[in-house]
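protein under study:
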Amino acid sequence: MKFLGTYKSKSKDSASNFIYACQSTNHGCRYFSQRYSIFSWYDQGICMTDDAWFGVTPEPVANQVAKDMYDSDAKKTVLIDMFAGAGGNTIAFALSGRWSQIIAVEKDASTLACAQNNADVYGVERPCITWVHGDSLEFLDLLVNRPEELHPDLRVDLATTVVFASPPWGGVGYSSDQVFDLYTMQPYDLRQLHNACYPMDHALYLPRSSDIRQIAKLAPEGEKIEVVQYCMEGASKAMVAYIPAKNISEKN
């Protein structure tokens, strides 16, 4: 796991090694026509990798999620973006001005370089994003159980931290099943995600057809889970489950 430090403005050429032309491959090209919905400033120097096209949150949805999370408990001042990808959600959270610190974790170095570049394109110059190159579940395990092994800038207080997770939606059926079984999602299923995040309030960005009954079982005793469908042009793009923290003794 590599701590990359607090974000500083950088040259738009910094991620040039990771830029690709969509026309050079069939991979991701069905999203190219949606590029201005994904990043409205796409022509200003946005960088993407092949795989990033499949995971980035459309900008209007990212902005609405950031707005909804703006109104969360005022005592929560730190946000961890578990799957930063090309930076769509991270940028929206940073531009909201709500969080004193944002930790953005991404395991693919090329995608992370694109995210840093894209944050620069959107003018995110304040030192509020801390970039981490590493596995997000490993990072959260260290934060919860062995924080002394982390860089001092990453040893945040769990009680004041919120986690946002937009995981890969791999697995059979997420786009075709009427109700998607979240325990078949790959490479991280619902149980793995919740077990990694449960000591903190967490928001899970999930397929729109996700099984609500599976999500409901994650509610702490006496608490409720809020589930919101996020739509564009009259069609749902995804749902977000807002899940309160559990005590250690309540772990599933």
Notes: Strands lie at 2-6, 78-81, 101-106, 129-133, 161-165, 201-206, 226-232, 235-243.
